[in-house]
C-alpha cells in the first residue's frame, strides 16, 4: 500500500520492518542525475544500489547540452571571459520571478569544478573552430538580457558520438561512463526494478524503498540515504492535468519513464512540491536561422516575441501567452536559405503577397500587413523597437512568395518537459510542507523543482542541475551515519 | 510538531491521544463555505464546533455574487430561461483545459436547490427592474462563449445591505444568518482559535484537530468529520512564490487570514493538491462601461483581448499573457461618460492625438496608431473581427483628447485570489496523492482546488462553490459513524 498509510505500516519501528537487502545509499532512477549521484556515493565508499525501471541503458538523458560557466576550461580555451558573478546575474534575471537564489548560487559556484570533473572522467570537449563544444544555448544574446549582462556562451556540448545530431543522445554516453565508474568503485549492477514506495520511520528518517522485480516485491534498506532521480511527470497525463493543464496539448520531450512516481512517492511521506505548473515548452523549428530571420505572429497577425529568442522561450510564449496559436512568416529568400527543408505539412499557407497570405490564414485585414509593414520599415533601418531582435537577424521580408509555417500546438511539434517537482534545499535534501528537511531523503534532476522554474530559457540547465545536485546528493548521502 | 511527524505521534492509536473536548463535526474557518457546512451539520443533528482564527464576524466572505442557474426561482421570476445542461456546457467551456466534470456536474445539479435553500433562510433576491438581483457576472455574453451557448445571467446578488456597493460585503450577511441557524440547531458558539495541526490516526482516519486559544493548546476530537474551510493562500507570500509566482506583484483580494494553513495542514496528513499555480487576477476598473468601450493595449500598443470581457479575464490576460503591462485607451466621449471619475494617478498619459499619446507612452510609432485605425475602421462598421467585442460596446474612438489609463500590475490595482488547493471529490472529501480519500477529512471553498481553475471567468463561482460543497461536506460529515 502506498501513501501515508503505507508509511504508517513501518512506524512501529525498524525492528518490525523486514529488509531483503541492505545498502548504504540507494539511487532510484539513473539518468544523468542518478548516475552522478551513484558515482559520487560509490566513490565516497558507500555501498550503492541503483534501481531503474527503464533499464539503465534505455533511460538515457535526452539532451547533451550542459549549462556551465563562470570560467570553465573550455571557456578559457575559447578565450571567453566569464565569471561566477556574471553567470549568477544572468540566471537570477532569466529564470523567473523570485528565483531560488540558494540553489542558483550552489549551481554557479560548482560549475567550473563540475566541468573539470567531467573532463577527469574522460568526457571530451572540443575548442576546434569547426567543431566547437561551446555555444550560446540560452537567452544571453537576446533582449533584455544582452543589455543587462555581457553575453557569453555557456552551453557545453560534449564531443561524443551523437552529440551534434538533431535529437542528441550524447547524454547517454556520459551516463554510461558514470555508471561504469560507480561499478568500478563497488556499486552493484543497476537493478531493473520498479520502485513502489518510500519507507519512512517512526523517527521521521527515511529508511529505504520497496520495489518490485519481475512482479515480486522486495524491500531495500538505505542506511545512509535514499536518492530520488526519477525525472519529471510529462508522461503522466493525469498529473499534467492536475498541475500544468495548459501543456496538455503539447508533446512530452521526456522519456516514457517520466511518470512522476518520485514526486508522488515523496509527497506520500510528507514532501512539499514547488511550482508544479511550470514546464519548458519548446517550438524547435529545425532551421533555427529561418526562425530568427522570420516574423512570428499570433492568431491576430501580431508579433509577440523577438524571433531570435531561444526555442524554449518561443514555445513558452506560444503556449502560455498566445493560446497555442502561432505562425512563422518567411519570404522566398529565407525559404531558399534553408527554411524550405520544412516538411510540406508544416506549411499553413503560401501566397504571392502578404495581403493574400493574410486572407488565407483568416487574419482580418490589414492586421498582418500592418505588422509586416512596421517590421520591414524598421528592419530596413536595422531597428526593432517593438521586440528588440538583434541586428544580425533583421532583414525586411520583401521577396514573395510568402510562407506561413505552422507554429501552433497541435499543428506543429510543440514539446514540453515539466519543471516543477519536489522542493529541495541547495543540498538536494527534500523539504516537507513545513519547510523542514526529511532526513536521508534526496531528490535530484527533474523530480525536484528546477532552477529555471517557471522559465526554461537556457538549454542545458536541466543536465547542469543533474550533475550539480546529483553529485551533491551522492556525497551528502554517503556521509550520513548508518 | 506539525507535519507527518506530528501525525505519527498519534499513530499508537486513539487510546493514547488525549482530547480536551469531543464533537461530531469540527469546521475550521467560517466564511461562507464553513458557515454552510456548520449549518448543515448542525441541522443534521451533529454536535458541531466552528473554529475561526479571524473571529467569525471578521472573516466575512468578500463578495456577494453567487453563481447559480439552471432555472432558479429568480431566473424564472425574471423570465430568464436556463437549464442545467446550458449551465454545465458553459462551465465546461469556460473554466479551463480538462475541467473537473464531476465537481461541475454536482455544482450544476444542486444549483436550483441551493437557491431555494438561500431563500428559505430568508436571503432576499429582487426581481424589481430597478433593483435586480440577477446579472451577467461571467463571460456568457462574450466571444467565443456567446456563440457556443445562448447567454443567460447567473450572477445572483442577494438584496441585502451593502451588496450593491463597490466593495460588496453582503456575503457577511448570509454567513451570519447561517451561523445563527447553526447555533439555533445546537452548534457551539464559534471559537476564536488558531488551528495548528490535523490529527490522523493509525488507521488513516482523521480524528480531530489541535488548536491554540490565547496561546494555550487544545485538542478537539471530531468523531464524524473535520471540515477545512480556511480559504486560499494569497496572503502567504512564500506559498505564492512556491506555487503561483507570476502573481507576486498583484494585490491579494482575500482577507488576511487566507494564509494557506489548511492546504499545508492537509498536505501534512497526505492530501494532494491540484492546480496550485492558478489564480483569479482582476483588473476591476471602476467604470466598467468605459472599459468595455475603450481599447485595451499592451506594451507594444497591440490589442490583446475583447474589452467587454469579465474583469477577471482581463486581469488574467494582463498578468499571464502581457507580462503585467497594459493601458486602457479612451477618448473624450468615454471620459465624459464616466471614465473621468478615475483618480488622476490612474492616468498614464493624455494627448490631443493618438500619435502624441503613442509617443508619451513610449510605444514605437505607428503601432498604437495602426491599432486604433484598424479598431476604428471596423467599429464604424459595427465589427470587431480581431477580438469580437459585442456590437453594443463598439464605437470608434475619435474625439480627442485621448487618455491612456494604467492597467499595469504595480501601477494600477490588479488584485488576485488563489484558485488551486486541496484536491477533493465531488463529495468534498480530501484525496491523497494516490487518489484515495482521506477518511473523515473534507475541504470546501478556496482551500480546495476550484472549479474555475485555472480560469476564473465568471464572478460568483467561488461563493457558489462555498455553498454547494460546504452543504455537501456538512451533511456528509454528519452522516459518518462516530
UniProtKB/TrEMBL annotation, chains A, B:
GO BP, sorted A to Z: steroid metabolic process
A GO MF label: oxidoreductase activity
InterPro entries in the cross-refs: FAD-dep_OxRdtase_2_FAD-bd (IPR003953), FAD-oxidoreductase_2 (IPR050315), FAD/NAD-bd_sf (IPR036188), Succ_DH/fumarate_Rdtase_cat_sf (IPR027477)
Database matches in SUPFAM superfamilies: FAD/NAD(P)-binding domain (SSF51905), Succinate dehydrogenase/fumarate reductase flavoprotein, catalytic domain (SSF56425)
Keyword Oxidoreductase carried by entry: yes
A Pfam short name: FAD_binding_2
Cofactor(s) of this protein: FAD
Keywords on record: FAD, Flavoprotein, Oxidoreductase
TM stretches of this protein: none
Domain FAD-dependent oxidoreductase 2 FAD-binding: 24-460
Protein name per Swiss-Prot or TrEMBL: Flavoprotein
Organism: Denitratisoma oestradiolicum
Amino acid at each position: 500500500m502506498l501513501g501515508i498509510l503505507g508509511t504508517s505500516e513501518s512506524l512501529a519501528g525498524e525492528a518490525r520492518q523486514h529488509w531483503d537487502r541492505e545498502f548504504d545509499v540507494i539511487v532510484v532512477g539513473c539518468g544523468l542525475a542518478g548516475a552522478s549521484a551513484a558515482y559520487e556515493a560509490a566513490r565516497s565508499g558507500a555501498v550503492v544500489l541503483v534501481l531503474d525501471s527503464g533499464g539503465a541503458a534505455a533511460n538515457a538523458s535526452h539532451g547533451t547540452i550542459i549549462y556551465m560557466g563562470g570560467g570553465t576550461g573550455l571557456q578559457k580555451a575559447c578565450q571567453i571571459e566569464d565569471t561566477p558573478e556574471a553567470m549568477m546575474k544572468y540566471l537570477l534575471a532569466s529564470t523567473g520571478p523570485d528565483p531560488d537564489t540558494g540553489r542558483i548560487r550552489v549551481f554557479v559556484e560548482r560549475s567550473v569544478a563540475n566541468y573539470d570533473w567531467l573532463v577527469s572522467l574522460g568526457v571530451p570537449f572540443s575548442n576546434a573552430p569547426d567543431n566547437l563544444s561551446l555555444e550560446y544555448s540560452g537567452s544571453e544574446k537576446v533582449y533584455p538580457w544582452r543589455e543587462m549582462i555581457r553575453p557569453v556562451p555557456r552551453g557545453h556540448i560534449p564531443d561524443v558520438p551523437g552529440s551534434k545530431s538533431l535529437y542528441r543522445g550524447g547524454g547517454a554516453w556520459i551516463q554510461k561512463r558514470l555508471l561504469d565508474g560507480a561499478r568500478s568503485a563497488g556499486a552493484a549492477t543497476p537493478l531493473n526494478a520498479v520502485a513502489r514506495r518510500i519507507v519512512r520511520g517512526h523517527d521521521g528518517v527515511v529508511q529505504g524503498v520497496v520495489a518490485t522485480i519481475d512482479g515480486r516485491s522486495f524491500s531495500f534498506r538505505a542506511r545512509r540515504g535514499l536518492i530520488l532521480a526519477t525525472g519529471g511527470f510529462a508522461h503522466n497525463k493525469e498529473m499534467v492535468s492536475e498541475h500544468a493543464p495548459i501543456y496538455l496539448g503539447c508533446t512530452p520531450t521526456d522519456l516514457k519513464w517520466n511518470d512522476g512516481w518520485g514526486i508522488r512517492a515523496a509527497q506520500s511521506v510528507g514532501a512539499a512540491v514547488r511550482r508544479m505548473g511550470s514546464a519548458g515548452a519548446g517550438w524547435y523549428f529545425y532551421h533555427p536561422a529561418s526562425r530568427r530571420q522570420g516574423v512570428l505572429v499570433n492568431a491576430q497577425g501580431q508579433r509577440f516575441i523577438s524571433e531570435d529568442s531561444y526555442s524554449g522561450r518561443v514555445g513558452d510564449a506560444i503556449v502560455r501567452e498566445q493560446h497555442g496559436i502561432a505562425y512563422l512568416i518567411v519570404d522566398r529568400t529565407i525559404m531558399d536559405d534553408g527554411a524550405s527543408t520544412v516538411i510540406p505539412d508544416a506549411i499553413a499557407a503560401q501566397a504571392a503577397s502578404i495581403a493574400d497570405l493574410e486572407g488565407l490564414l483568416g487574419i482580418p485585414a490589414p492586421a498582418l500587413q500592418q505588422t509586416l509593414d512596421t517590421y520591414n520599415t524598421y528592419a530596413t533601418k536595422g531597428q526593432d523597437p517593438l521586440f528588440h531582435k538583434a541586428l544580425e537577424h533583421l532583414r525586411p521580408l520583401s521577396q514573395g512568395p510568402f510562407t506561413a509555417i505552422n507554429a501552433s500546438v497541435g499543428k506543429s511539434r510543440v514539446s514540453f518537459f515539466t519543471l516543477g517537482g519536489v522542493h529541495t534545499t541547495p543540498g538536494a535534501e527534500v523539504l516537507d510542507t513545513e519547510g523542514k528537511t526529511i532526513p536521508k531523503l534526496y531528490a535530484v534532476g527533474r523530480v525536484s523543482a528546477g532552477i529555471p522554474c517557471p522559465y526554461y530559457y537556457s538549454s542545458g540547465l536541466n543536465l547542469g542541475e543533474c550533475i550539480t545536485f546529483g553529485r551533491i546528493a551522492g556525497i551528502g548521502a554517503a556521509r550520513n551515519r548508518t
